[in-house]
Every structure is written in structure tokens, then in C-alpha cells.
What we know:
Radius of gyration: 21 Å
Distance between the termini: 12 Å
Shape: globular
Helix content: 25-40%
Structural class: alpha/beta
Order of helices and strands: HHEEEHEEEHEHEHHHEHHHEHEH
Mean pLDDT: 86
Strand order of the largest sheet: 1-2-4-3-7-8-9-10-11
Number of strands: 11
Low-confidence stretches: 1-45
Amino acid sequence: MTRLACATAAPASAPRTLVRRLAAPALRHVARAAALSALFPLAASAAYFQWETVTLPASSGASCGNGTPYRFFVNRTPFTTKTVVIFEGGGACWDQNACAGKGGGPLGISILSASNPNGVSADYMTNVLNLLDGGISGLALGGLITPFSMRLHPLQSVQTQSWNIVYAPYCTGDVHTGNKVTVYTDADAASPRTQYHRGSVNGYAMAQWLGKNMKQPSNLLVTGFSAGGAGSTANYGWLRLAMNPKKSALLADSGPLFNVNRTDSPAVSPSVLLHNKIRVVWGLDGPDGLVTKLLTMYPNAGTAENLGSLSTGLAKIFPQDRFNFSTYQRDGIYSAFSYVTFYPEIAAAASGEPRDTLINQKWSIEVPKWVDAMKPYPNIGYFVPYQRDLLKSHTMTTLTFAGTSIKEAGIKDLNVVIDNLIDGSGTPIRAYETAKNPQNTKTPGWLDTLLQPLYALLGL
């Protein structure tokens, strides 16, 4: 569940040939769009290659955490029906301060608290100056946050940059999964925080709009990073059913829904304390919850006793679709959500390596179980490198795919996995790194070591 306070520019020493290679696809599309507009004036009114703001009506039940309207954004192209839908990452909350975007760090905010606590503005995709608007906001960075959300990304190319692009911001604090209004009073009973955990309602309403207003995709890729990795998984079914693509795939980056039974002990499943907390405050398996709705539609998809069973349940519901679930073995941010609040010894540890070591001891129990649960399903792939020297090994699709190789499997970066997922057949790529390579011989790497003071300021 990641936030990024700043973006790095492409290094000045980058070869010109690389820049030209990255720029060429987008420049071709811009030239085509200009020619099309000249030949067919009506095309200009379709606002191709621009961000269209879609504000969902209150009647849909959609809402940001503070009760303001939920908005998502569409960037269309006239040259294909292929469509990528991106669920934004960010923090999560199950207490008053975190839902308000507050934290206990020196800056009064935390990378672990809810993002966009004051809602999503109509200019969200073009205004990159609102990063600290009452909590960490504006994570899209004008589309720079992930190569999937920018047609000409300075750091990374990916085949979906020529597709229709849909960007779903995150403002509910529930990893795009909730359907409950929860009133939090734990920090200040005199000024309660009414939190609209409407993530799954937003996803469902967005899917209905896309099904009515977009052409049937020849290919659909649903993806998301961090909280958006969990959200893309949770909302995949709504999008798949509403848009009815000819081919469809899911790439869920660094938002694993672990295979945890409700009655597991913390020794067996350390994230059981988190799972059982969010079941209640986010309303996951309540009468109107996401889990209840899915299992009513598809009783054999999984069980409410194990939230992670719904990930593999997608493979049963849509056996012709292709799925990939990815995370790093050394993830130090999504893992922090799972354990810091629930284990006093971790919360009390000094930020940096002491706390990260305790977190990883629990994370390393759950990742192999999660991978094993996917193996019986031939349409599910997984990609689990050891680490990368950026954002504490959290997310593979923020900013760049650099550091996502698994050399022992002959995979140079995540693009190989994506192309296989979209264009391949048979079981999607399955790779779990067992041998360290030069990108991860030191934990943490030099960049994360350099950034440790910043992480501490942001509550990590």
C-alpha cells in the first residue's frame, strides 16, 4: 500500500537511443490523433489522449472516505478497443487518525495512513501540486506513478501505453474492498471521524459505467499496485462481467490477499489479526460486504472463513482468463500494515533495519503459503523476486520495472511477465527467486539505506 512523495527523473546519462525507443510509440499515437482530428473533426470532441473526469453520482453509493464524490479518469484512444484499468495504491486505516491521514511521525502524516483523506479532485490527474493536502494525496503524479498510467513514460515502456487507460484513485482506506460506514472515536471522541469505506462500491459503480460507455475490449488488463493490487483482485469480477472483453487478464502487484483462515493462530498466519480486524470495520463479510456478494453470486469461489481463497476463486469463476499475483520476498511496506499495529514488539522496535527484520520474519512465513495456494490452478501465475533497492522492496510497477529481474529464471524484468500474461497461452509465468543476484546482495541496498531518514519521517 504505497505512497510516493516524489518521483525521480530519468538519469541524464540515459542513452539517446533508449529515450527514442520509449518515446516512439507515444509520438506515433499523437501524430495519428492529430491526423484523425484533421480528417474527422468529430473525433476532436471525443477528447482522445486526454484525461476525462468521471464523477460517479451519489445514487450509486460511491464515495470517498470523507463522503465526497468518487471520481475516476479515462484516457481514450481511437485506434484500439484494448483497455487497461489501474487501481491506485496508498495507505489503509482502521482507526481515527489513520483515516484522517494523520500519523505519529515528525511530519504529522504517515505513509501507512489513508491516502486522499479529503477526497479526489476533478483535476487529480493533471495537478501534481497537492501531495500534502491534509495527508498524502495526489499519488498519480500526473500519471508518472506507474508506466501503465502514462502514454509516454520517461522511465519505462509497456505495451498497454497504446491502449485505452482507466485510472481508479484510492480514497477510502480499505484497499478498494469495503462497504461500510464506520464511525471512529478512538483518538478524539468529541470529533468523531465518519469514514465511508466504500471501496468495493466504487469499483462496482465504475465497472457499470465502463460497461455502458466504453466499447467492448478485445483485451482487458486489470492491474494495481499495493492497495491497488488487492483492489484489482477484489474488483476484477465486476469489471470482467460489465465490460465483457474477448480476452482478459489480471496483474496484481504487491497487494497479496494471504491464505489465512479466520481461526488460524498468529504463529501459523501472522496476518490473521489484520484480517479479522478489517472484516469488521470494512464490512467485508457483512450483509452487504464484498465477500458476501461474491459468494452469493459464486458459491464455489471460496469461503468467507478465508479471505485469500477469493483470489484463487477468480481462477475458477473465469477459467479462460489469465492471472498473475506478484510481490517481493522482502517487501517492507505492505508487510508493515499486516503486523506493526498488531504486534507490540514490532511497533516498539526502532524504525529501519530493527523493525524491518521483525516484520520480515512474519512476512516470510506467509509468502510461501500464498504461493502454494496458487499452484493447483493452471491459469494462475506468480512472480516473486527477492527484493529491489527502492521503496523497501515494495511494488514492481511504481515508476519503473527496474530491479524486477529473476535471473535464474531468465526473466530480465516484469515486461516479460506482462507480455506473457496478455499474449501467451497455457499457464502464465511462475517464478520464485531462490538465488540472490547483484541487484539484491545487500539488505537494504544503498538507495534504501540513503532513504531511511525519509522513511522514518513518513512513519516507516
